[in-house]
C-alpha cells in the first residue's frame, strides 16, 4: 500500500494518476512545461504524505495549478504596472486601451443572465473545470456546458468579435 511506503504500490498509483493529474493542471495552467512541473510537485507530495485517494490527489493538483496561474497572473500584472509607470507615450495609450477593453468585458458580462455569468465566472476566472462548476452549482454537466456556450456566444456578439 502507498500509505505504508510500498514503492511498487506508488508506481502503480503514479501510472494511474499521472495522466489525469497532468490533464487537470494543463487545463488551468495552459503552459506544458509548467504543467509538468506542477504535476510532479503534486505526485511528490502524495508520496511524502503517503496519501492514497484519487480524489485527494486531484484536489491537490487543481489547487497547485490554480496557485501557479494566480502567481503568474500577479507577476504579469506587476510587470505591466511597472512598465506603464516607466515608459511614456504609446505604452500609456496601450494601458488606457486595455483598461477600456476590461470595462467593455465587464459591461458585456453584466448583460448575460445571472446563471450564464456565474457559470462563466467560475470556469474562466475561478479556474474550475466545467465538471467542477456543475458540482459547485449542483447542476448537470450538460446544463453547464449549454449555459457557458450560450453565454460565450452572447459575449462574442456584445464585444463585436467575428
How would you characterize the overall build of this protein?
The chain has helices at 7-29, 32-49, 54-86, 90-110, 114-125, 130-137, 141-159. The longest helix has 33 residues, at 54-86. The radius of gyration is 20 Å and the shape is flat. The protein has seven helices and no strands. The mean pLDDT is 80. 83% of the residues lie in helices and 0% in strands. The chain has 162 residues and is an all-alpha fold. Helix 1 runs antiparallel to helix 2, helix 2 (32-49) packs across helix 3 (54-86) and helix 5 (114-125) packs across helix 7. The termini are far apart.
Q: Into which percent range does the helicity of residues fall?
A: over 70%
What is the chain-wise order of helices and strands? HHHHHHH
Q: Poorly predicted ranges (pLDDT <50, ≥5 residues)? A: none
Biggest pleated-sheet summary: none
Globular, elongated, flat, extended or rod-shaped: what is the shape?
Answer: flat
Structural class: mainly alpha
User: How many individual helices?
Assistant: 7
Mean pLDDT: 80
Write a compact overview of the structure shown.
The protein is mainly α and 162 residues long.
In terms of topology, how is this protein built?
Layout: H1 7-29, H2 32-49, H3 54-86, H4 90-110, H5 114-125, H6 130-137, H7 141-159
Task: Provide keyphrases for this structure.
flat; mainly alpha; single chain; 162 residues
Amino acid at each position: 500500500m502507498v500509505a505504508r511506503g510500498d514503492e511498487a504500490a506508488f508506481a502503480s498509483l503514479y501510472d494511474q494518476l499521472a495522466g489525469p493529474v497532468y490533464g487537470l493542471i494543463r487545463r488551468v495552467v495552459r503552459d506544458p512545461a509548467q504543467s509538468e512541473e506542477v504535476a510532479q510537485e503534486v505526485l511528490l507530495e502524495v508520496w511524502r504524505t503517503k496519501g492514497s485517494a484519487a480524489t485527494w490527489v486531484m484536489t491537490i493538483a487543481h489547487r497547485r495549478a490554480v496557485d501557479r496561474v494566480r502567481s503568474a497572473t500577479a507577476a504579469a500584472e506587476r510587470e505591466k504596472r511597472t512598465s506603464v509607470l516607466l515608459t511614456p507615450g504609446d505604452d500609456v495609450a496601450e494601458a488606457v486601451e486595455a483598461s477600456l477593453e476590461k470595462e467593455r468585458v465587464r459591461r458585456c458580462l453584466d448583460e448575460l443572465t445571472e446563471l450564464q455569468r456565474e457559470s462563466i465566472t467560475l470556469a474562466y476566472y475561478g479556474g474550475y473545470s466545467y465538471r467542477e462548476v456543475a458540482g459547485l452549482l449542483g447542476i448537470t454537466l450538460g446544463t453547464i456546458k449549454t449555459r457557458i456556450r450560450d453565454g460565450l456566444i452572447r459575449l462574442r456578439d456584445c464585444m463585436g468579435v467575428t
